[in-house]
TrEMBL record, chains A, B:
Residues 31-210 form the FAD-binding PCMH-type domain. Its EC number is 1.1.2.4. SUPFAM superfamilies: FAD-binding/transporter-associated domain-like, FAD-linked oxidases, C-terminal domain. It comes from the Archaea. Pfam families: FAD-oxidase_C, FAD_binding_4. Keywords: FAD, Flavoprotein, Oxidoreductase, Transit peptide. It is an enzyme of class 1 (oxidoreductase). This is D-lactate dehydrogenase (cytochrome). Its cofactor is FAD. GO terms for molecular function: D-lactate dehydrogenase (cytochrome) activity; D-lactate dehydrogenase (NAD+) activity; FAD binding. Belongs to the FAD-binding oxidoreductase/transferase type 4 family. GO terms for biological process: lactate catabolic process.
Amino acid sequence: MREVKRKFGERFVDDPALLSLYSREASFEEPAAGPLGIVYPVNEEEVAWLVKWAYENDITLYSQGSATSLSGNTILTKPGLIVSFEKMANIVEVNPTDSYTVVQPGIRIEELNVELARYGVFFPVDPGSVRSATIGGAIANGAGGMRGAKYGSMRDWVLGVNVVTGRGDLLKLGCRTLKCRNGYDLVRLIVGSEGTLGLVTQAVLRVAPLPESAVAVRVYYNDISSLVEDVVRIKSARIWPLFAEFMGPAESEEVGLNRAYTLFVGVDVNRGAEGGILARLKSALTGHIADEAIGIEEAMRLLEPRRRLFSAQVSIMRRQLGDQGVLVIEDVVVPVSKLPEAVRRIAELAQKLEVPLSIGGHVGDGNLHPTTWFKRGDLEGAKRARRFIEGLGKIAVELGGSVSAEHGIGTLKRELLRLELEPAVLEYMRSLKAVFDPKGILNPGKII
Amino acid sequence: MREVKRKFGERFVDDPALLSLYSREASFEEPAAGPLGIVYPVNEEEVAWLVKWAYENDITLYSQGSATSLSGNTILTKPGLIVSFEKMANIVEVNPTDSYTVVQPGIRIEELNVELARYGVFFPVDPGSVRSATIGGAIANGAGGMRGAKYGSMRDWVLGVNVVTGRGDLLKLGCRTLKCRNGYDLVRLIVGSEGTLGLVTQAVLRVAPLPESAVAVRVYYNDISSLVEDVVRIKSARIWPLFAEFMGPAESEEVGLNRAYTLFVGVDVNRGAEGGILARLKSALTGHIADEAIGIEEAMRLLEPRRRLFSAQVSIMRRQLGDQGVLVIEDVVVPVSKLPEAVRRIAELAQKLEVPLSIGGHVGDGNLHPTTWFKRGDLEGAKRARRFIEGLGKIAVELGGSVSAEHGIGTLKRELLRLELEPAVLEYMRSLKAVFDPKGILNPGKII
């Protein structure tokens, strides 16, 4: 460790207060060990040096962006060093004509989009944690978010990465062009690998032109089945929504809307076509249309209450449990046509397990975020919450979906992944891990 | 081989005439050996059986769709069996609400789109060979095509694959949903792996709603620099073209247009917004606008002459060389802003090497298809053509592009790939190959 201290100087930290702060993430997964220190590299040579040193000295490394992950993706499973990318947070290049930007991993998505807007382009991946989530974390976690139905997730928007593997090799992967066929697609192997195959030191991201205009509606429903059936109806009408989000009655009331199931749908359109699309959208809906918007900013404003779902859930939980509540935000995905059955079965599951349920999510792409909570220290409650997570995964897999849409596997869903994938597939994944990280020093105990 | 004959009966063929027919692909690469036979499996169990048998008996396998590849991706490098997917060509499911279709690998892209159109959706990847190219071949080759600037390439549209690896394991990978985070992204490792990691037996493809409407223009230019500068101008104006294609003066004349550099640009738009977008598009252009179109079918009709570029090139070559011409269609990509420099340097290269040059391509995404030809048996001409290919790759890499945008590496560009990727990256690719195909029985001598 002396060499690391010498190399990084003040950028090596082992102050216990800071170590404790960096040990937690947004999930309720508990770290199994404390960090030996936090290292703040400033360039990729330092990252490569650090990983080589760790490889030679059998030291475990945990890369960290802003630790907003929700599946135990960043927490320590045994003692090791945290590698923070806070000091590698620059935008290296913005090239709107060539539709790409080059960035360091520590830049926050929202910060990046503020800069990109000056060039008339944007980076479409929009996770709930967009204000603090970093590009490096979003790559590691294969992040998704609100614009998924139209724009997909990280794997669709990362053109290239520089990555330091668990052997300390710095690999420059991918291209600056959208089309690129230079051998096996290692870029997308890194995307979503949760820091278990390598540490991303730079990324080339594809950017899209800002939509010209948009329309949006906010719709109320008496029951959740009618709401998700309307989402199926929108998709059946071949409307390709920019977002289709929802929240429940208690949460809607909490953010100042009616006490009803609330659906938010937005569609990006060409200027001049707003009226026609809005009419088509409204005619596909059976709920009570409470609000409508024309224009990008107006559509985003209409969506704004949905962005407060998380704080609404926290408020509701606080009224029940005071300061001692632990919020569990889950993440599953099913084909859109299976949403009615999924929400029915999820409600039944919560009832059976006697856990509180708040359900919201990105229904446009079949992605649900069922949320529950329990009191800190209530071991029985925590056990019920874990049974709830397990049950959700089973429902998703049975309906042809996946145990995770966008939060990833981490420590939380390792067992559930075994429900979805056959043993042979897991065996190949373990072999790939061994190629990139033969000593298992990168974020061990995650995914596989 | 006796067991294979017994297992496949009449679906094992070793008639020399057929063997010779199946030995060739659309490229000018020569096979280094003849096939031992052709096998036509009808289901994935048969494919898995065959690969297991080949693994145990050290027999090489070459999977084949319609052999339209242009980089030596399918040709035999040593004796082995050809696995044809002609008899696995069904559409298993079309699900427009959930935005996916499940298909067998032998289905042709155009056939698939005819069926999908009945549901109001389409599969956007549109290679030049779309009438004969199969989905299995397109996955193996990571195909691109005319709609790349807007819709990307195969990797963006394959949600899941069933694949038999070189160890004979049948792996079910990916999801039916767009968002999906079930471990490492092995789906995209298979896409573009050119049949060297596994044989795809089924695929889940993402589909998109058919565009509501479109506008398009055909524009003439006196020189190619003005043409590609207009493409840069379109991209700088933040217009996101559905296609931006071009062809040279001789080829344009050959298909019945003016003797000029011809640019075809189409943009998909909402119904009602055609006028506004067409005006914006036209105001970004400096060339002579010879034709314009409003509506999807009209835009596709305007593009139609561009689809005859290949036969125009063949006609021009025939007038020079008679029946003995060998056409070499190249494939490189550069960032769009580098197109003016790229086309200038490519013309200089052709002149220096004294090779004929016909240039066309998908300029909207920076993808050029410089084309040359030589007389069969003219060893000096063939050598010059190879030097031309090498020079093109160097230009692309120097300008920040790639040695292949969409045709892949095959046998033709193995050496060039070494120009683009550092040795460490190639080493990791070789290790991945060893995981999936430890005995090297799948399409050897390609990519790495």
